[in-house]
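Chapter review. Work through the record for Ig-like domain-containing protein before attempting the end-of-chapter questions.
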Amino acid sequence: AFPSSTPSIHLETPRFRTVMTQTEITATCVVHSAYDAKVSWLLDGKDPTSRTPVNQASSTTQSISSNLTLPSSQWKTLNTITCRAEHRCFNSTEKTSNVKG
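C-alpha cells for Ig-like domain-containing protein:
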C-alpha cells in the first residue's frame, strides 16, 4: 500500500538576469510523491491558456517533473506562478512563487 502522505513540491524559477536576457523563460516544478500525480500550473492564480506549452515527464515513480515555458514578455507581466499536484489519493497541494521583478 502507498503512504497517504502529501507530496512535496519544489518550484524552480529563473533568475532575474535570465528573464531580462532570454526570449523564452522556463520554470520547473518537481513533485515528489508515491502517486502518479497530475501536475498543473497557474499564472497569477488562473489556468494558463491552452497554447502555453507544459511538459510533464515521470522520471521515476517517486518524482514527476513539469516544465512551463513562456515568452519573456509574458513572464515579465506575471506576479505569481503556482505549481499544483493533484491525485485522488491526497488533497491537491500547491507551491506558489512570487516572480514579480
